[in-house]
Amino acid sequence: MQNQTQTRRAVRDIVAAIDARARDEDEIRIEDVLGSLGGASFVPVLLVPALFVVSPLSGIPLFSSACGILIALISAQMLLGRDHLWLPRLLTRRHIAGDKLRKATGKLQGIARWMDLHTKERLRLFTHRPFRWVTQGACLLCGAAMPFLELVPFSSSILGAAVTLLALSLLVRDGLIALFGLCFIGLACGVGYWAVSGTLAA
């Protein structure tokens, strides 16, 4: 699919491209959503399922799990340094209702605008190797955990927010955002521990 060349791109442009692809469509496949990014690098493609997990689309049964698997696969291939992205057709051929996708992109416009206004190149040490591998590995773990935590309230959305921040840090080379992303992972771990402890205690 895409190569791994770093591409600086506004988050609003990514959301707008998805919204344009969903225009007047009753149903759209995930592969078409990803394809709407054109020749983008791995990072914008990683950002898309992460944004979906924090959008109203996360309410669709098993959708967060599918996005988590996509996040894990994309992150793993980034870690391996692959030039082209491969994703299983079983996942990418899954359909999303056009009206739900348009509603989600509408909600994401405000988030994307905030991200573009409040991110900039800083603490670049945390967006280059070896810390870059830590960021990619954290995204891989978050994605792999989502299918197991879908039934734990808010956990998948928190992990989605973490991956969104981590991917954004790579996109705009903002190390401070990467640190915030790692904090969200800690929050998700706390929520998961609280939920499991409460279940066992009951």
Automatic annotation (TrEMBL):
Alphabetical UniProt keywords: Membrane, Transmembrane, Transmembrane helix
Keyword Heme: no
Protein name: Exopolysaccharide biosynthesis protein
Coiled coil (residue ranges): none
TM segment ranges: 33-54, 60-80, 177-196
Organism: Thioclava litoralis
